[in-house]
What we know:
Layout: H1 2-24, H2 27-43, H3 55-76, H4 82-107
Amino acid sequence: xxxxxxxxxxxxxxxxxxxxxxxxxxxxxxxxxxxxxxxxxxxxxxxxxxxxxxxxxxxxxxxxxxxxxxxxxxxxxxxxxxxxxxxxxxxxxxxxxxxxxxxxxxxx
Length: 108
């Protein structure tokens, strides 16, 4: 399992950073989250069940949910200014419109 975990960490670091940065929007915080993610994965590796999904999915879900928790924590402590929050809302709106357009093109 350690060899598999090591390979997963090296191949999933860039996607993990991407997922976390999209949520947090701060490089230092993103790096901290990924350290926590991979430490948690190492400590809980026996909980991984291949029948429930790939190791990639498992790791990226860790990154996603830990990032959401950190964003909530940072927002409560006023880490983000109003301009950053407005920009994030606009980006989410554009991503939703793009996603809806893509889905319509695929299934329409």
